[in-house]
Design brief:
Strand order of the largest sheet: 1-2-3-4
Strand content: 15-25%
Distance between the termini: 42 Å
Largest sheet: 4 strands, parallel
Order of helices and strands: HEEHEHEHH
Helix content: 25-40%
């Protein structure tokens, strides 16, 4: 709720703002080369689907993880229920994903470490364990046709 658009569930809340923005940029401005990532913070109250703009508006769903170090299995399932067949990601995180998290929550397509938290919240061993995990691809390891 620290953003003016935050903590506004329902059809007239932040989901509607997302819809208006996408409709304007794709319909009015004709932008057709964007990937639309809907993001929600891991607020303890849950009910994250109440903020979702709808399947026709989001290409990817993502979760910011700030209330705890890693998404719980319940958090993961809540996001899976929202995402359906869409890719999902950890949009912001302050603690590097562990091998256990990557194994038990295999549908995360990517994670994004908040810059100042990389060294501030993680040891070198934790950083290396995450970036060298077999499920994690790094720069130069992705070849697209």
């Amino acid at each position: 709720s620290w953003n003016w658009w935050g903590n506004r569930p329902g059809t007239n809340g932040s989901a509607r703002l997302f819809q208006i923005t996408r409709d304007y940029l794709t319909g009015t401005k004709g932008l057709d080369n964007l990937i639309w990532v809907w993001n929600v913070q891991d607020n303890p109250a849950g009910g994250w689907s109440n903020y979702y703009p709808g399947n026709q508006y989001a290409d990817v769903v993502s979760l910011d993880v700030w209330y705890k170090s890693h998404p719980s299995s319940a958090d993961y399932q809540q996001m899976r229920n929202i995402a359906g067949t869409k890719p999902m990601a950890v949009g912001e995180i302050g603690k590097m994903p562990t091998a256990a998290m990557l194994q038990s929550q295999p549908q995360w397509a990517w994670f994004m470490m908040w810059s100042e938290h990389l060294r501030g919240n993680n040891t070198n061993a934790e950083i290396q364990a995450a970036y060298f995990h077999p499920r994690v691809l790094n720069q130069g390891e992705v070849n697209l046709p």
